[in-house]
Specification:
Number of strands: 0
Structural class: mainly alpha
Shape: elongated
Largest sheet: none
Radius of gyration: 18 Å
Helix content: over 70%
Length: 161
């Protein structure tokens, strides 16, 4: 049972990283776009990646928690440190990414729920869109996610404490 849970945990992690990586690539590509229609299309592609990312995240969490029990790891500090890093990275990326890209979707004229569009009254302008597209936000998000991922992988492989 433990081997299966570790396999599913790693598989979920690969799905998570692959799908989230697609969104990261879109974030960097957006920096070169200025046409609102293309920006909206890229953001739609990123949204699809985020949906798949959540499937990978749920898989890795459920299998990881189960593997923590089947491997008797809950008494070890490394597993708690990995979970803490995951929560901190997720919170930071959500805070820095979600509102930023939601506002960009509205500014680009992408299809958004009415309640999301209503948050931005007045709506962002073309100048706002240009400023968001030129932002260094993708680099900040990539640094947070990349460092966090490297730290978690190191904890899981080395199990230092």
């Amino acid at each position: 049972m433990h081997g299966l849970m570790v396999f599913l945990h790693v598989l979920g992690a690969f799905v998570f990283v692959l799908a989230h990586g697609a969104s990261a690539l879109v974030a960097f590509r957006l920096r070169t776009e200025r046409e609102p229609g293309r920006v909206a299309a890229l953001l739609d592609l990123s949204s699809l990646g985020i949906t798949v990312m959540y499937i990978g995240l749920v898989t890795l969490l459920v299998a990881g928690v189960t593997a923590g029990f089947t491997g008797d790891h809950w008494g070890r500090a490394w597993i708690w440190a990995a979970i803490g890093i995951l929560v901190a990275v997720a919170a930071a990326m959500y805070a820095l990414g979600t509102t930023f890209y939601a506002r960009m979707r509205v500014a680009a004229g992408a299809d958004v729920p009415a309640q999301l569009a209503a948050r931005y009254d007045p709506p962002p302008t073309a100048a706002d869109l240009d400023a968001m597209l030129a932002s260094d936000r993708p680099f900040i998000l990539a640094a947070i996610g990349g460092i966090g991922l490297a730290a978690i992988v190191w904890l899981m492989v080395a199990k230092p404490f």
